């Protein structure tokens, strides 16, 4: 297992100008590749006249492996997508997509200039979004007595869990979501 992972606190966008080119960086939370692609389409729709839309993402699959993708968007190979991915890796961010829009200003930046511009736009967008420690969540179905429901609700509130679904018959069947580290303790307490 790697070090602690982080997620974005919020979505953000930042803008900078380098030698007449406008760079707009977007950092956005996403849970899966479909969600990342949907957000990229929204950014593209907001900036239909942009010359380039480069991006990178890091997404943790439920099985625990991390998918990384990056795209140079027609810029010279290695000057856009990889520099956008670098701060995602460096900050241990997951479930994050970062896009950088470029409006070409007529002055060529060279490969070093492009690499710095895309990397800085990504880093600034991530910094503006802020980050939080990622907590692995788990789901659990429990069958409990009515008398235990209030205690379960209290315990879940203490550990930032919640009830997803509940059915009432002669007992209460609940589906809960909670931080995975508390799964065993809650299962033992309410079984």
Structure characterization notes:
By secondary structure, the protein is an alpha+beta fold. It is built from 5 helices and 10 strands, in the order βββαββαβαββαββα. Strands 2-3-6-4-5 form a 5-stranded antiparallel β-sheet, sandwiched between helices. Strands 8-10-9 form a 3-stranded antiparallel β-sheet. The protein has a two-stranded antiparallel sheet with strand order 1-7. The mean pLDDT is 92.
In short:
This protein has five helices and ten strands, in the order βββαββαβαββαββα. With 191 residues, it is of the alpha+beta class.
List the helices and strands and how they pair.
Elements: E1 6-8, E2 12-18, E3 21-29, H1 33-46, E4 52-60, E5 66-71, H2 81-90, E6 96-103, H3 110-129, E7 131-133, E8 137-144, H4 146-158, E9 162-168, E10 172-179, H5 183-189
Antiparallel strand pairs: 1-7, 2-3, 3-6, 4-5, 4-6, 8-10, 9-10
Helix pairs in contact: 2-3
């Amino acid at each position: 297992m790697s070090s602690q992972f982080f997620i974005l606190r919020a979505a953000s966008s930042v803008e900078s100008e380098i030698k007449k080119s406008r760079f707009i960086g977007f950092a956005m939370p996403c849970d899966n590749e479909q969600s990342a692609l949907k957000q990229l389409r929204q950014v593209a729709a907001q900036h239909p006249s942009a010359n380039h839309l480069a991006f990178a993402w890091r997404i943790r699959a439920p099985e625990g492996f991390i998918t990384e993708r990056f795209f140079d968007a027609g810029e010279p190979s290695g000057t856009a997508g990889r520099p956008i991915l670098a701060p995602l890796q460096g900050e241990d961010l997951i479930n994050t997509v970062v896009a950088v829009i470029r409006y070409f200003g007529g002055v060529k930046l060279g490969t070093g200039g492009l690499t710095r511009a895309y990397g800085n736009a990504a880093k600034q967008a991530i910094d503006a979004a802020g980050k939080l420690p990622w907590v692995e969540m788990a789901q659990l179905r429990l069958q409990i007595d009515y008398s235990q429901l209030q205690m379960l609700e209290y315990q879940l509130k203490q550990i930032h869990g919640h009830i997803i679904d509940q059915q009432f018959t002669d007992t209460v069947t609940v589906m809960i979501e909670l931080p995975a580290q508390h799964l065993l303790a809650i299962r033992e307490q309410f079984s």
